[in-house]
């Protein structure tokens, strides 16, 4: 292979064989995770999933700690030490978006060539790919690494607001971090991600009787609609970021001049200066002239910074493609408009690849799925990629 310093220690056929042997029974483990309600706002359920997975990590040689974090179920960090130099991170999350009761009402099932269930793709299947990839390497006796650090987050689905700094600390200085979100529907891995921000616009006016004395009111909905129309015109043709006006709420009854209205705007960030430009946009929106008697506030929150494609990520992506080719798999890499915890790690300058989990899709929906036939090949791919991972420039 061209993109690492020395020939791989194990042949692709060795890794394929051991992966097939090591992963026997993986569907039972997947079912054990999927049958737990673990929406982010159910910290007890998320902790149950994390504790189950931590037990499996311990069983294959990880030293596992649970790090409490206020406001969520915390982080689980597994560390394994070898005799080499490279430091490799694996990153996943235990939470889902589904409300309590989903696990019982929609249990995991096979449907033709797919496995369906809440969280199978996002991202219980990927967690198991990471676990089994390490088990494969343990069975092969691979020790040419300084450290493998497996981090399990409890609140990725809501932006990792409480855990992002602790998570980045755990994975600081890694030569590569492999994020275990599902592969794209065509099997591609992810080499860049848009940043994600949310702009909340709130209009506060004055209520009045719409029939008797409407002139005493100040209509917050009308003011907000005017502002949103301006926002659309202001951002038309913008290539640094893209907006979507997602929700509008306001008013109490049709015969009352509404005194409050709120809109939430999703913003996807594509360029290096997009965060600054969106920040200026939010301030401009808040200070813009509006309906007399109405005030506007703008609250901008950064969910994920952009994960930009760069030379180090390109090097890892090319290596992954070579590893896949040696395993008889077709693989490409692509960018996506969705964010993940990879964004936070890449923003610290750590080389990342995402989408190393099984092939899956339709996340956050009743039809969320993975392709079970992809599980063993993706496990073999990650295991081979870990053995071939080069030292990043800072480590050389």
General description of the model:
This protein is α+β, with helices and mostly antiparallel strands and 396 residues long. The protein folds into 2 domains: 12-194 and 306-395, 3-Layer(aba) Sandwich (Aminopeptidase), CATH 3.40.630; 195-304, 2-Layer Sandwich (Alpha-Beta Plaits), CATH 3.30.70.360. 34% of the residues lie in helices and 24% in strands. The chain has 11 helices and 18 strands. The protein has helices spanning 12-22, 26-34, 43-59, 102-105, 120-139, 164-170, 220-235, 274-287, 311-326, 341-346, 375-388; strands at residues 63-67, 75-81, 87-93, 109-111, 114-116, 147-153, 176-179, 189-193, 195-204, 208-209, 241-250, 256-257, 260-269, 295-304, 333-336, 352-353, 360-361, 369-370. The strands form 5 sheets. Strands 1-2-6-3-7-16 form a 6-stranded mixed β-sheet, with helices on both faces. It has a 4-stranded antiparallel β-sheet with strand order 4-5-18-17, with helices on one face. A 4-stranded antiparallel β-sheet has the order 11-13-9-14. Helix 1 (12-22) crosses helix 5 (120-139) and helix 2 runs antiparallel to helix 5 (120-139).
